[in-house]
Every structure is written in C-alpha cells, then in structure tokens.
Specification:
By secondary structure, the protein is mostly helical. It has 11 helices and no strands.
C-alpha cells in the first residue's frame, strides 16, 4: 500500500503539470481510492472531490461515478448513502458494467458494516445477479461474502453458511472476500457450539 500510494501521488504530480484532462481526473480518483482503502476518509473525500469536479467539467461519466462512490462510502454516516445510490444509478444508466459492480460492492459492504440491514438486503441480490450475468466474478464473490455477513447479523445461520461456502468453493477468490467468508463460517460454528470453529478463524487470521 505504501508503494501504491507513492505511485498514485507521483501520477498526480506529473499530470498536474499538464493541461487538465481525463488522465488527471483518473489520477485524482485513484489516489482517492487508495486513501479510502487506508481508512483516511478526509483525504479520500478531498481527492475524490477534485476528481468529481474535473470529471463533470469534462463530461466523463465513468470517473464521476467512481468519485461519487468513494465520497458516498466515506461519508455514509453523514448522508453519503444518497451519493452511493446515485453512483449506482448513473453507472447502470450509462452501461458501465465494472463501475456498476464496484457501486454494488461499496453500497452493500458499507451498509452491512453500518448495520443498515434493510438497505444492504435491498441491493445484495440484485448486485449478485448483475455480476453473475456479466461474468464479474470477483465482484460477485465480494457481494456473496457481504451477504453472508448480513445473514449472520440477522441470525440466519443456515443462509449465512451457504453464502460463505459459495465464496470458499472458489479456490482463487480474492483475499478479502475469503477472509469475510471464513469469519462468518467460524462465527456460525461457534454460536452452534461446533468445535470446528477454529479452523476457518485461524485461516482468516493468517490471510489477514
């Protein structure tokens, strides 16, 4: 992550010396994503705001969608939900499949972490169906893992186990969905008094 942020900042420095264009807007959006992933929300919102402003000046929907999603995720507790839903709506309208997948992930994942169960449930299955239909396998696995956590939090243990198992059946899944799925599986087993709880929790710990 240190190398990623250094490269992102170097890109911004390089492109700010040139006339502002799509590449600079993308560099701003990328740096915003990097800061958001590191949990630095103020920095992420600041860079995403620059990306959004430039994207709107350029009429670039894809970068605008990406930036709105980042801001909405970082400001979820302060009304960012509207920006997340707007990001998804714009991406769907423009037919930007990869941005749609990302918007579903941000919307469902953020809602699950904030325990907004109704909001998460409203978009989880729609997102899974969308990603399945378009071969967005990584995004589908993220959404399945978030759905597993949602079902666990709602006390729906059988459903949570099934969703987690669907992620774990894919051997080359991204690390983050696998960690979420393993934690859900371990917690379900623990709540049932199953002594096999430790194996998935140890694997999740090692991966994390």
């Amino acid at each position: 992550t240190v190398e990623a942020e250094r490269a992102a900042r170097e890109a911004v420095t390089l492109l700010e010396a040139l006339p502002p264009g799509r590449e600079l807007a993308m560099a701003y959006a990328n740096l915003a994503n990097t800061c958001a992933a590191a949990g630095r929300r103020e920095d992420a919102v600041s860079w995403a705001g620059r990306a959004l402003e430039l994207a709107r000046r350029l009429g670039d929907t894809e970068i605008a969608v990406n930036s709105l999603g980042t801001i909405g995720c970082c400001e979820f507790e302060e009304g960012g939900r509207d920006k997340l839903e707007q990001s998804l709506e714009l991406a769907l309208r423009a037919g930007l499949a990869e941005q749609v997948g990302r918007a579903y992930i941000l919307l469902v994942g953020t809602a699950v972490m904030a325990r907004c169960h109704g909001l998460a449930a409203r978009y989880a299955q729609a997102g899974i169906d969308y990603c399945s239909d378009r071969g967005l396998e990584r995004d589908r696995l993220y959404l399945l893992a978030y759905r597993a956590r949602l079902e666990l939090d709602q006390g729906r243990w059988e459903a949570a186990s099934a969703s987690a198992a669907a992620v774990l059946r894919v051997p080359r899944t991204s690390i983050t969905p696998r960690i979420h799925a393993l934690v859900v599986l371990g917690l379900v087993r623990a709540r049932r008094g199953d002594p096999a709880q430790w194996a998935p929790l140890r694997e999740a710990w090692a991966l994390a």
